Model the fold of this input.
Amino acid sequence: MEAFFYDSLADMEKSSEKIDELIKSTWPNEKDADAFFDELEKSFTGKHSDYIYRNVPTLSK
Done:
């Protein structure tokens, strides 16, 4: 399980922009990036949930 904690939705947007920037710097050639992510997708079943916000009582102070 992987979790990311943000103080605001704006921080989440900034994170997405930074990820895009890192991808472009790692794979300047878009075809190379597409090939990598196509291969990466084969590693996952696609059966999971993406939550932008989820209340987890055990994490509350």
User: Anything to note?
Assistant: Residues 55 and 61 are 12 Å apart (CA to CA). Helices lie at 9-26, 30-41. The chain is about 50% helix and 0% strand. The chain has a mean pLDDT of 84.
